[in-house]
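Hey,

The postdoc asked me to send both predictions to you directly instead of through the lab channel. I've kept everything plain text so nothing gets mangled by the mail client. Protein one:
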Amino acid sequence: MDEINGLAELIERGGIYRGVAGTTPREVMTAFIKALPPLPSVPKDTLLQAVLEREELMSTGIGEGIALPHPRNPLVSTEAEQFAALAFLDIAVNWNSLDGKPVETLLLIVSASAKTHLRVLSEITFFSREQGFRRLLVGRSSLEELLLYIRETEKNWRRKP
């Protein structure tokens, strides 16, 4: 796995946003994307529209209170522009998740290629099943704590033959 494309690196670029408000996925995504810093190559309204269009196809709520909103197609053209941003919602929102649980945490993924996007989705799916990671999300841990946990896990993956 390229270091630049690891989940920890992507979240470090995108950051954590706390207290994101809204009572519907549309309201939450609007508030979340508005909170992001300016994106050099993608207008925020373009990103929001792409994420909402993807959500209309099928809910990105994967269960355990987590949703993975993302554009259906890459919106950035280089690896340096890729990021993942984590949002802790102000209140839990019905996201039509697979397990029926309301969503409290979002992980927005913006990738430059389908290959990277699928790998990041796979990595996040793995982490979402890990009790330690979920505990960090439920506890709304700091960016540093989350990155440490993710990096330690990613190191162990690289050590395996």
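Protein two:
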Amino acid sequence: MDFATVKALHIIFVVSWFAGLFYVVRLFIYHVEAQEKEEVEKKILSNQFQIMERRLWWIITTPAMILTIIFGAWMIILIPDYYLNATWMQIKLLFVLFLLIYHFICQKILVSFSRGKFSWTSTKLRLWNEVATLFLVIIVFIVSLKHSMNWIKGTISFFAVALGLMIVIKMYKRFKDKKHKRN
């Protein structure tokens, strides 16, 4: 397989992996919020969320993660001198390692929820969901600006995005709390 095809497949599976990570945490949020419902509704919703979470995780998210790693490693194997000696790649791989840790923490949450243990609040999960967004932003910026990246601007931009996401989450929580008090 030529380099361009391997790269295209790597990008496709990166997109699929992130889609799965974003959606599974949204399901976790809804699953936690279902625990506040009446018992019958809570049971029906919890059963449905468990099915959705499990299928998403094991049929889409985890296979996409594995294929992302396979095709990413394949690219490095095809041009090792270029990739292994590039500072931007070493930094990118560090963030990919953090993303893998994020992935397995999500898996731990999935297992915990399937056992009926809900230690995460919906607010904490909303914040957790934004961690994947931050990884996406920084990895894309590192790869896109690999040859011209101004590290000071990149770092400031990263923290600005993080701050912006936290502000949006706080505003959403206030809106939700006000709406809940009205009902």
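Summary for protein two, as requested: The mean pLDDT is 91.

Thanks,
C.
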